[in-house]
Amino acid sequence: MKDTETTGSQLRWLWLAVLVIVLDLGTKAMATAMLSYGNPVPVMPMFNLTLLHNTGAAFSFLAGAAGWQRWFFITLALVVSVVLVFWLKSLRRYETWSAIAIVLILGGALGNVYDRIVHGYVVDFLHFYWNNYHFPAFNIADTAITIGACMMILDIFRKPREPDGNPE
Fold first, then answer.
1. Does residue 135 fall inside a structural domain?
2. Where is the active site (predicted)?
3. What gap in Å lies between CA 25 and CA 8, rounded to an integer?
């Protein structure tokens, strides 16, 4: 087996998932300590810091459910996280783009899982708007998940290359 085909080497990127979790939980703690719930603090045109609690998923999906969604989203995120770690472990040494995408999603998912387990909701505080349209508030974990997902989508359109530079 060639050195460039060795799997498991992409686990070295797990530090990035840990960084996402630390940044996410740190900024959520700061937002919780410094902001009043639901009270927007203008930062610049079209951007406020607004502390909100999301018991649902993206865009408050299922936020109005009876409470079962908390455990559903915790279980789902933990299962997806295990799958992502196994996927990361199976990547070849030269599949760095995919590895970074996976660990960004992993770090974001675990940051939000922590909130759901400890608080019963996800802390959101980044709030963009345009005139009377308000984009749903989000956090650093959501940002990492979105960037990772976009990287995966872009990867679909990239030509796969073997380490020697030739298309597969």
1. yes
2. 124, 142
3. 28
